[in-house]
Amino acid sequence: MKRRNHLYRSFGLLLIGGLLAYGLSELLVALGPIAGYQFKEFNPLSDLLDTTANQSYETLSIPLRTANDTTATELHSADSTNSKGVTTDTLTPLELSSRLMDYSEGQSALRRLRAALREGRSRSVRIAFVGDSFIEGDILVAPFRQALQQRYGGKGVGYVPLTSTVARFRQSIQQRFEGAWRQTLASKSNSRTLFTLSETFATATASASTSYKLTNADRVTLHYVSDTIPVAITYGINGGERQHVELPASHGALAEYTFPHGAVKQFELATGGGDGTRFYGVCFDGMTGISVDNYSLRGSSGTKLTAVSSALTSQLSRFRPYDLIILSYGLNVLSPKDNNDSYEWYYDAMAKSIEHIQQLYPHATILLMSLSDRATLHEGEIHPLNGVARVLRIQHRLAQRYGLLFWNTHEAMASLGGIKGFVDKGWAAKDYTHISMAGGTQLAKLLTADLIGDESK
């Protein structure tokens, strides 16, 4: 009898544990996107099920407006004119392709951008690619950068952090770091005075070093913030003798230090640490031409861009004034469960981020990339996430409201077979969310062609 009771008790405990795990999984899946995280649904039987994807999945174009869409009239009276003076309730976009739209005043944003690109032979033209894990490891960004540099000139990969969780698979530059580095992220901080567009910086609590190998660059710079004491570092270029230098005290402002050299293919930096200096990144550039900085932050939804410091941005803009800022977000907003979320909370939060970026960079052209195609695999069948259409339309409304360029990433993927086609061709991971370098190259071709326009013919 006691043995049977033990069996019942064990079975009961297992059942209760399973139910608790499932309940916690459902809660995290539902609330994760709001906090900027993505959790996978708990399924204890997943290993017993056939995970062969069905062949009936098809990605279709998503209309940016529905039959009952109130985009033109839903803006409140206070929103009828945006921060750049564009009347949004009557604005007609310049549709430059099935993917690219110009909602700027007089549809002038793309003309300004193309004019700036043509100046690449005589000056530095700077582009910031700001987004989530969709572009981490320089996926999409590297082929985009390469295409523009081949046409308009330029060298290097632009901004690279001192430490990176994706350094091991980034192909455009090799990076190794060791020692007592500590990374601080905007997503885990309430500060509005510590962050630039990268939303991260590194400090060294003791000795720490980092090294880079790349194809070519003509100029290496370091961005940092220190107090009233000079910062001692050691650096080496192209395997040469180590040099000792004291970075000038920046007195709390963001400073730039340029390392003296010509062509650079290797760079090493070491610090004794412990002085509280904040290292914001190393930049590898040409003397002129196109420079593209990849500011990707895993798990970000874009809503924390309001934490970007006005003071630091003003100081950084003296060194890196951006002609174009590309915002690429949306994947971390979606919930794998169709909970009929309208995502209006995301519209409100992202509106604040866009307003903040426009205030920080009043002279930059801003392009909003929509989220891509995304699906989920359930019991061997691929199911598109219904929330994709809702978030896509919200991003379109944001571009319309704030007079931005808008590029429909979902439409671009649909023209190439959608997320299933990408996975089948090895262009995307089998999470049916993240693209590979090969997939990024395909999207970069379309994005570059749309931005360059007739010049590419």
Automatic annotation (TrEMBL):
A GO MF term: hydrolase activity, acting on ester bonds
Record-linked Gene3D superfamilies: 2.60.120.1360, SGNH hydrolase (3.40.50.1110)
Protein name from the UniProt record: SGNH hydrolase-type esterase domain-containing protein
Lineage: Bacteria, Pseudomonadati, Bacteroidota, Bacteroidia, Bacteroidales
